[in-house]
Amino acid sequence: MSTLHPKKVSDFFHPLHSKNDLDPLLERVGDAQYVLLGEASHGTHEYYTWRAQISKRLIEEKGFSFIAVEGDWPDCFKINKWIKDGVGQDIQEVLHEFHRWPTWMWANWETAAFADWLRDYNQHQSKEDKIGFYGLDVYSLWESMEIIVKYLEKEDPETAELARQAMMCFEPFREKDSYGSVFSRSKPGCQDEVISLLKEVRQRSHNYDSELEADLNAEINSLVMANAEKYYKAMSEFGNSSWNVRDRHMMETLNRLMDYHGNQAKVIVWEHNTHIGDARATDMAHSGLVNVGQLVREEKGYNNSVLVGFGSYEGSVIAGSAWGAPMQEMYVPPARENSFEGKMHQFNGTNKLLIFDEHPEITNAFSVDLDHRAIGVVYDPERESGNYVPSDMVERYDAFLYIDQTQALHPLKLKPRENLTPETFPFGI
């Protein structure tokens, strides 16, 4: 087992203070078409602002085509439409339409600031070159059903009848919508009906052109319907299979987005570390779990993908004390001394960028299993022991942004402090 040598290894860390310090990461990206940017929580300001900075540079300097995030398709498609052709409406109005818990995950000032930048950037691009913003997740079953039924009633009445049949199949369970049991007693054949709808939409989607990316919107909403049925059924069985259904759905959606944008398309993915860090380098593999990072590497190749993790030592975070509970700003205590974050703090306690395969000293030092902190939307600072994932950091990521001290995200529902305006958010503080 390798031993960490602080003085020797730290010589190969890159300081991380401004967007110019991202040069080594941009060099590591090279010509890769897939860049996956993580986060150690869904409620930390710096993860959002640094991901925004990286994304801006990838778009401006390397021609990346769109951003795909860990969010519901219908909600994120509203952002997509706004940044491409939004007029009049303020981005805050768009984000206030995010109603599914945890609302703070996308309805925040940091996202608002980045969306403003994307719209400004798109105003100088041709229709074909405008940057997109899409959701990869599977949770929006009812919203996707309603959208596709309404759209097809107008554009394709014949296929709309298939959509109505699929929606009626699930309707008795609408009031029981939960992440654990909604489809435990659903009618036989629901999935068959949705798959028939998906096939029909795919065959006829080239005719859907009255709205922005209408063919893509119709197909992905149908795909959500098909995979949500599998996801919720797996959840009701209390096994691990629901995780794989969800991440495989996100990968399937990502593949469809890449096909839609053409062979030269490049994508930036924003998801939690648990989704973008290769599952095979963690104890997830022992449970038979896969994730998007693993699937991207397997399908697209190591040379065509770059996985970037994020983490911090201590600070504050927005989270809930239980699923569906009101959001709170919570204290994040110092990381365990022998964790990856604890060891990063020991190296001068400064922000730093690591490129794991840049030098043998870095590779050798971190080719060991270290506890790596992961904070979910549900968090209890007093029960930190359950928030660490044993990880071979070199195998899990290609690069890592370590932020020593972090602060909580700024939800739209809370007015930011006077010295923090949306204009400052993209640059971090």
UniProtKB/TrEMBL annotation:
Q: Which domain of life is it from?
A: Bacteria
Return the Pfam families for the record. Answer: Erythro_esteras
Sorted alphabetically, the Gene Ontology BP terms of this entry are: response to antibiotic
Which InterPro entries is this protein grouped with?
Emycin_Estase, Hydrolase/PRTase-associated, UCP036794_erythomycin
CDD domains tied to this protein = Ere-like (cd14728)
Signal peptide per UniProt: none
Protein name (Swiss-Prot/TrEMBL) = Erythromycin esterase family protein
